[in-house]
Specification:
This protein has about 300 residues and is an alpha/beta fold. Helix content is about 30%, strand content about 20%. The strands form 2 sheets. Strands 1-4-3-2-5-6 form a 6-stranded parallel sheet, with helices on both faces. Strands 7-11-8-9-10 form a 5-stranded antiparallel sheet.
Length: about 300
Amino acid sequence: MIRLDGHTRIPDPLRGGVIALGNFDGFHAGHQAVVGRAVRHARDEGRPAIVATFDPHPVRFFKPDAPPFRLTTLDQRQELFAAAGADAMLVLPFDAALAGTTAEDFITRLLLTRYGAAGVVTGSDFVFGKGRGGDVVTLADHARRLGFFTEMVAPVEDDAVISSSRIREALHAGDCATAARLLTRPFTVRGTVEHGDKNGRLLGFPTANIDMGNYLRPRYGIYAVTGKLLDGRELKGAANLGIRPSFVPPKELLEPHFFDFAEDLYGQEIDVAFHAFIRPEAKYDSMDALMAQIAKDCDAAKALLARV
């Protein structure tokens, strides 16, 4: 899939496309409905299907000190958009220039002139432009006057509207099942395995240490997880997410231990999917007590993952 820079003019072969427009962080069931509709429009009319996403997220621009909240990286979104049938991902860098662009200029100068959109599909709650001055009504009004088409996709609901906020709340509570249902897949952290202090290896449970970066922090504790390696192999394991209170100094890490696996993963990028919360983090008075608890956690994770 092609990745396009929102600062530059879209190349001619992709002009006249149908653009799905939104943040799409997490690419949950509601986002999938918006992109799916754009892809169907594009296929029916023989046009390119383009998914536009903002990176960094507008919240990071307006609130730079906000705690990490991302559900996906840009690379993950690109893979998800491609799997949904899109031809290209258009990355709109949310900077001061974009924040100061009026809704009308966003439509005329960016969507139509720079990106060559023939159609735009959004969710019903999408707002854009300086001071959030534009919405789906603004888009529809300009579409009638300027000759492009637009469609608003109604929210997807189960017991309530599916949203990134609901997913974040579920993960903060350690509710992996609800997060996975809304996302249509487990919440997954992608990161590069880094060298640590080797405590896990000394305890008999070697771990692949991963920095959480800009990802939202689910509830600290022990999880049943699966891992996916670059070569496609999938592993089962148990992971600690938190500050490791039994060790000094505290250091936040995601530390998956994969069952029956002893290969060197240092420097490799892996995916770690969260399937179930087992227990909160705890501090132990001795290494023997910690080792015994880790063994119990691994047994619990194996039981939970038996159906995965």
